[in-house]
Amino acid sequence: MAFSYGGQCLDSSVDGFTTLSVSGRGGFTRAVTATDLASDGAKYLSSRLESKKLTIKFFLKSASLADLMAKTGKLKRITAAKNTMISFADDPLYKYVGTVTSVTLDDTTLHPTGSIEVTLSDPYCYSITRQKTGTGQTVAFADYDSEFPNIPLSIEFTPSSAISSFQMTSNQGKHFLLNQSVSAGKKIVVDFRTLSCTVNGANVLSSVSLSSNFADFTIDKNTTLTFNSSGEYVVRFEVKKL
């Protein structure tokens, strides 16, 4: 159950540190907005998932007081990172993003137990990057094994023949339109993380239609993308789970 924070495994980076347990991964809390009724109860208006808290229990073994101080100092330095990647060895295919909000020791011995509290501002966890590659005009995501949709990291498309514009649409009403001709063999890269678009490495963001679903081009297990031309595609995405 080794605990990694900001890309560093504490169980191997801090000598004598052992992760004992982690709690909070499986639950969630939902805040409900409602207005009271004149009769019994209230009328539901909306709701949202709140931030999630994880508590990691650990054991820290040291040989002397100076050794303990050095190890706790290193632990504090590693956990000083903010809004960073978090993962656990017992679930290596998924990661969280959060911030350590407290590190406490339960006693003052040379071999104390303690706890690390992490606040996940984003309550969801995300898979390691998955990739779909192929040739053609459509791509489906039947293996997206979650009920929570997510925006792809990026989509690359290389048309087999010259096109006067590039368009991709989903069967769920999302679309992306690049109002620019693209020669055969020139790679189009749509990066949804940076909201950028390039053709053969050149920035073409000004040619992207303002009506495009750039910021909310979500996919899920029922999504099928269709391109307006046949070509080679690479779709990189993360599965989003609660």
Protein model, in words:
- The protein is mainly beta.
- It has two helices and 19 strands.
- It has helices at 10-13, 65-78; strands at residues 3-5, 8-9, 17-23, 30-36, 42-49, 52-60, 84-88, 94-105, 113-120, 125-127, 130-140, 154-159, 166-170, 175-178, 188-191, 196-199, 202-203, 224-237, 240-241.
- The strands form three sheets. Strands 1, 2, 3, 6, 7, 8, 9, 10 and 19 form a nine-stranded antiparallel sheet that branches.
- β1 (3-5) and β2 form a beta hairpin.
- The longest helix has 14 residues, at 65-78.
- The chain is globular.
- The mean pLDDT is 93.
Please provide a brief summary of the model:
The protein contains two helices and 19 strands. The chain has 242 residues and is mainly beta.
Our estimate of the beta-strand percent is over 45%
Structural class: mainly beta
Q: What spatial form do the alpha-carbon principal axes imply?
A: globular
Task: Say how many strands there are.
Answer: 19
Unreliable spans: none
N→C terminal distance: 19 Å
Oligomer: single chain
Summarize the amount of helix as a percent range.
Answer: under 10%
Q: Report Rg.
A: 24 Å
Most strands sheet = 9 strands, antiparallel
Q: Supply the number of helical segments.
A: 2
